[in-house]
Amino acid sequence: MRVSQVAFDRFFVELPMPEPGYTPLADREEVGHLVRFLWEYATPPVLALVAGDASWCQPWSPRRVSWEPEDADSGAFEIAWHPDRGSQAVVLRSEDDLRRFLAACPAISRVALLWPRVDVAKSFMKLAENGDWRGAADALARFARQGSEVTVLQLR
Q: Using one digit for the tens of pLDDT, what is the confidence trace for 36-70?
């Protein structure tokens, strides 16, 4: 794993490129390095926003939210308001939660990680509003290229 600070408020994390039969988020060692970086990046816990089918999120007691990540593999680095879609948010309270979540996720490009600005409850309240989602988070992480690229953006 290689971490580059590409701007004062942005980090770019590169994991090995996916190949047939290999995805970096299925590699325990790579996931371990990534989880340590993400967990130490900002104050835990972490909120994960999951767009689309989130039935696999049941172990984390997902909550419905109207904000969802745009597909990072398409080049977007945004979270958009979609009141009619079934987006879910889960709270990841430990490094082990984050590790298990990343390993279980079937479509990582449709996930965004948010570090709550104040606390989890206030972040959920802010996400319930149909205004700017940036008030809910201190930082945002987005995944691309089957999890081999992660961009972390500091919002404060």
A: 999 999 888 999 999 888 889 999 999 988 888 87
pLDDT bracket for residue 78 (50, 70, 90): confident
In sequence order, what are the beta bridge partners of 22?
19
pLDDT, tens digit (0-9, with 9 covering 90-100), for 119-140: 899 888 888 877 778 888 999 9
- Give Cβ neighbours of residue 55 (< 8 Å, ≥ 6 apart): none
Number of H helices and E strands in the chain, helices first, is 3, 10
Residue type, 75: G
Whole-angstrom Cα distance, residue 53 to residue 55?
Answer: 6
Record the tokens describing residue 129, joined without a space: 């509003």
First to last CA, the chain: 26
Q: Please check whether residue 151 is in contact with residue 17, taking contact to mean a CB–CB distance below 8 angstroms.
A: no
Report the SS3 class of residue 61: coil
Query: Residue 134 in contact with residue 12, Cβ under 8 Å?
Result: no
pTM of the model: 0.90
